[in-house]
Structure prediction request, 456 residues.
Amino acid sequence: MQKNLESSVIVAKFGGTSVADYSALQRCADIIQNNPAIRLVVVSAAAGVTNRLVALSKGVENEKERLQLLSEVMDIQHQISQHLSPTPELNSQLRDYLVRMALLSNQLAEQGVEAAKQDELLAFGERCSSMFLAELLRQRGHTARDFNACLAIRTDSHFGAAEARPVRISMLVREHLTPLLENYCVVTQGFIGADAADRVTTLGRGGSDLSAALFAEALRAHTLQIWTDVDGIYTCDPRQVPTARPIPEITFAEAAEMATFGAKILHPATLLPAQRAKVPVFIGCTREPEKAGTWVRNTTQKRPMCRALSVRKGQVLLTARSLNMLHARGFLAELFAILARHRISVDLITTSEVSVALTLDTTGSQSTGKALVSEALLAELAPLCDVKVEDGLALIALIGHQLSETPEVAGRVFQVIAPRNIRMISQGASPNNLCVLVQETDAAEILQALHSNFLD
Ligand code: ASP
Ligand code: MG
Prediction:
């Protein structure tokens, strides 16, 4: 019985704008009620809530400012609850959440910042959303219930950017969640989990997608639906390139490159659990659910050489130069060990005989947004090499198939970019991407030129 149920379950995730207010929640409920296979729903905090909780989690000492932020969070939640004509239970649950948010904000301001408390505070945005959506579904006659994601999403104790433990998660899902799915449409929180000591953790900003994928993996779900404010993955960000269009189908490998290289639509780590469990992912627009959206699968029917372009601004290029590198062994190992100790992941890398240039991955940065190139990092690198840090750069990635095996690609890219400078280029590590690092101020023009050459 359970086996059948597991494989037919659809997991649906609704992002912050999809649960932003009461009418947005109604649209989520419509989608859920129109598809009885949706048994698990994963929600983000209402738009704007996590940003404010992040600000509060840094310890706002100025009381006026702190109360202002808290009242903005409360307003968003009250707006929703008023429309819901809440039951006394929901009212007291909401009051409890709001009181705990205020208490934690005060403690963080008065007693200093403590990572575990920060995550406890951040979690309330998602907790409110799942409580509201479960209530709305019940009011519409659905058998729905709220489920505490911390009972299933086990992580390490790296608060703010905790790492999930998929094997443990599968066991916990089977124990606590699967039995509920037989009788209920279950609504749970994205973004949050708990460590082995049952302390609340968060998965990093945008982590709700990852939560949904982890649940989908654990349930061996039929499909993972990601409902958001755009109707799928586009060939490029339409705000930057007006001729960009939605992509009907894309492979996991390509979508992962896109997510990593700046397309904001999916959290880069999301696809791993879905890909591991071979769960196809559908990305659709909550406001226009009938639109085609984008499917992400292991293989697609069409395999165009170039499927999409992505851009990531605000890139930092770190150049490490050391004369000891000449014929030396182990320089890179030392350099990377230091970066790893500072939990920095490297994106692109090019080397010459005495120097190595690399861009730093800013996507997996902490929920609380710590700067990546810290004084401590520079101090540790100083004895090893001279370091130069450049910013104001943008990374543009061409994403597709066999990019490294198609003769004309690099030539065409160079020709298109010719009037501008390429600060760095990376090609060949994967057949799925070709990356160029350019001045941020040139990025829009280069993107449009590449799109019209490769994708229009
Ligand atoms: N609410 C969290 C954030 O804003 C997680 C998410 O929305 O995915 O980052
Ligand atoms: Mg999101």
Notes: The radius of gyration is 23 Å. The first strand starts at residue 10 and ends at 14.
